[in-house]
Amino acid sequence: MANFIDQFFQKHCKSMTDQDIGTKLDTIKFIFSHIKNKDVFLNQARNLLAEWLLKKNSLNTEMEKVLISKLKIEVGYNSVRKMENMFKDMENSRAVMQSYKDAK
Fold first, then answer.
1. What is the pTM of this model?
2. What is the CATH number of the domain that holds 14?
3. Distance CA 98, CA 81 (A)
């Protein structure tokens, strides 16, 4: 399922409206709620997200954050905290790099 989500954000997300993406994210959350091994999924999703963020391939970070929020509702804050922290770290990194460029 994590690979499906990865492919969704890579290929299909850019041609869809925000409403269509939201509907798809709701479907993903529904399917996720029925998975028994949520930890396995979350680990794989976390690894894929890290890869995306490091390669700067993320097309729609807001929708990715929405998905993480939906997963947080399902499994709790502690389970998705690392993914949220990845986004915060990338935002902080961008801000530091911009400050560095502005200081030159």
1. 0.75
2. 1.20.1310.10
3. 26
